[in-house]
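Q&A log
Question type: sequence-to-structure
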Amino acid sequence: MTVNQPAEVGHDNWNERIALAQEMIPLISSLHRNNNVVTSIFGRLLISVTDIDIIKAHERAHQVIEEDLPLEQTLPVLRELTSMDLGTASIDVGRLAVGFAQSGATDLADYLHSELEEVIGGRTNVKEPTDVVLYGFGRIGRLLARILVEREASYGGVRLRAIVVRSKGDGDIIKRASLLRRDSVHGEFNGTISVDEENNIIWANGTKIQVIYANAPQEIDYTSYGINNAIVVDNTGAWRDRKGLSQHLEAKGADRVLLTAPGKGDIPNVVFGINENSVTDDDKVLSAASCTTNGITPVLKALGARYGVAHGHVETAHSFTNDQNLIDNYHKGDRRGRAAGLNMVLTETGAAKAVSKALPEFEGKLTGNAIRVPTPNVSMAVLNLELETEVTKDEVNDYLRKVALLSNLRQQVDYVNDPELVSSDFVGSVKAGVVDGLATIANGTKHLVVYVWYDNEYGYSNQVVRFVEDIAGKRPRVLPHRSPISEL
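Response status: OK
Response body:
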């Protein structure tokens, strides 16, 4: 049994869909409020949604199941979920609806109890949230703050307690709150922000964020603010080796430090979804690698596991970053002194080589280069690969679509096949990388070219937060279970 394509949407049909979506809103809210359950439609979270948001989530399902998902099919699932004694979890209503239709089962309640058995009766299993401190409050820091505030409201596993910055003088906290409130690329903060200047506190949707002014990590006493065993996320890039980053561990109340850039030396570089299981309790200094490494590594893992990769070249068209000049001026880096908004700038990237830190089987197999382009966000990686197996375009695309839909790499890999999509359409993508299926090149030989979009700010920040939740031991259980790529 397959999902039926809805009839052409006329006025009456649209009103029916609106009515169904409006019936879903209180069900979604009840699951979140009473059970700490966050629902989604094929990975698109249903948090603070409107009826239009719900309809769009169902329509976008065609990108992964190649047809729209009728609201008539998911509404009964939501109704049944509200009657179950569920514990904290992230539940994909779209996958449950399609899974039930395809299973041939006749009793929805029995099917859902079977699929969600491990979180039934788990409402009392609530853990104390882990404290998180953001050291630095630039582009990535502010996006991390947005996501952490939202995640705390959704799951309560980790909580943002403080940000650490150097004071820029009078009105510093007002300016930083304003930058959190409005963003030229990512839009307005979803909620309310207020400032307590006297106590150096930013309030964001009820979350108290202490602003700590300091010139060095080791001079801070986090415990004096009630912060203990904190994960410090360093997004300044000031230190990238163990010696420099270990300064954070000298601060009272800090337990671990996570760098939002590639780490040097023996620092573990982790791409969440790929090698986070290699981290031990003794690893106190960690790196979340780079945005490009996160964007390409999951796709490369999937391709390597199925077809084998002999060697390849990765070329990235990367949006300009804050380290480039707005107009021509001196810069210590080659070419980066030229006006970022006017030029394509050829530069180097270590992302291709960094892949092997997460996937040792790629050691020595990849080369890479980068072109900075005059866009403020969203980048593209072109994976030009020589495989160990002959492939066709349809075969590869079908496999990568299943990876995005069913596999344990689903939070990292997305798949689209829309001929009208351009870079700005991927602003706000929560996935590490998005395969553009229409651009895939393969003709029955061992040569394959795959194009991967990635929001180098927001997608990467979501990967960082996933890793923070993981090392805190606070990742929500995601159901239905995802399949290893070897089983696709």
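Response note: The CA atoms of residues 269 and 395 lie 32 Å apart.
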